[in-house]
Structure formats: structure tokens, C-alpha cells
Design brief:
Keywords: Signal. This protein is mostly helical and 169 residues long. The protein has helices at 2-26, 44-55, 58-77, 81-101, 106-126, 129-149, and strands at 32-34, 40-42. The protein has a domain at 55-149: Four Helix Bundle (Hemerythrin (Met), subunit A). Helix 4 packs antiparallel against helix 5 and helix 5 runs antiparallel to helix 6 (129-149). The mean pLDDT is 88.
Length: 169
């Protein structure tokens, strides 16, 4: 009987310890600083909000897409089809990430994602500079159509005239 009483006391002690731990977990989280020289401060929720702000919405996506668009053009002009395909992959990735952050843009991006991107991928597979130029112009028109659907037709995309990237072939 003594052994049973000891087990009972041990079980009760274990349960009490669990409740005590649970109470500590539910206490308000302390603010901490992390990152280089502690630039990211606050509770976990505040840090996530700051990181979301730093990542930004769709405008930062468009900066990435703009760079990739220009690189795609020059890759086609140089007939570097592997690099051109690489740029399209990154355009897709950037847009998918951007649409996660701004799902309200999905309706206007749908035809671009389903039609324009696969079309330029097919043109790249042909490895023909003249075909690429035709396809790239259609791709550019699709960019501008998407902007117009978003009510931002004042953002007009044109073929790059000056190569700004240090990447050369």
C-alpha cells in the first residue's frame, strides 16, 4: 500500500509540475533584440510584422521581376538560352512569392502566369533570336496588360535599351 501511495504522490507532483510549466508558457513574452547589432526588436509577433514590412508587398516583387525581365532580354539578344530560361524561372518564383504576400493581385496575374510565361518558355526552347524577339514583344505587351488590369497603366514596360547588368556573354 505504501508503494501505491508513493506512486500517487509522484503522479500528483508530475501533474502539478505540468500545470506550473503551462502557466509559465502563457506569461507575456519578453521583448528581445536579434540580428546584426540587435536591429530587430520586440516580441515574436512584432518581429514577424517588421520582417513582413521589410519584405514588402508587390512593389518589391516588381523590382525583382524588372531586373529579371531585362536580363531575359539581353540573354535572348546574346542567344544564351540557358540564361534566358534561368531568368524566366526566377520571374515565376518572384511572382509566386509576391502573390502569396498580395493575393488580391492574383486575378490580374492569372493570364500572365498561365499564358505569357509558358509562351516565353516555349519561344526560348526554339533557340531562335528572331522568334525570341517576337515572343519577347508579346511578353512585354502581357506585362503592360497586367499593369492596366491593376489600374496602373502609367507603368509602361518597354524593351531595354541599355544593358545595366555586369553579366556578359
Amino acid at each position: 500500500m505504501k508503494l501505491s501511495m508513493k506512486k500517487l504522490i509522484l503522479y500528483l507532483f508530475a501533474i502539478a509540475s505540468l500545470f506550473a510549466c503551462q502557466t509559465n508558457i502563457q506569461q507575456e513574452e519578453k521583448s528581445t533584440a536579434v540580428g546584426h547589432e540587435g536591429w530587430l526588436e520586440g516580441t515574436s509577433e512584432e518581429k514577424f510584422e517588421e520582417i513582413a514590412h521589410q519584405i514588402g508587398g508587390f512593389s518589391k516583387t516588381m523590382v525583382e521581376v524588372s531586373y529579371r525581365y531585362s536580363e531575359l532580354y539581353w540573354a535572348g539578344m546574346d542567344e544564351n538560352w540557358g540564361y534566358a530560361d534561368h531568368q524566366v524561372e526566377h520571374i515565376i518564383e518572384a511572382l509566386e512569392d509576391g502573390l502569396k504576400r498580395r493575393p488580391e493581385r492574383a486575378a490580374s496575374a492569372e493570364s500572365f502566369m498561365k499564358d505569357a510565361l509558358p509562351a516565353i518558355e516555349e519561344v526560348i526552347k526554339k533557340e531562335n533570336k528572331e522568334e525570341f524577339l517576337k515572343g519577347f514583344r508579346a511578353f512585354t505587351s502581357a506585362c503592360n496588360a497586367c499593369h492596366a488590369m491593376e489600374g496602373e497603366s502609367y507603368i509602361m514596360i518597354k524593351e531595354p535599351e541599355v544593358r545595366t547588368s555586369p553579366v556578359r556573354f
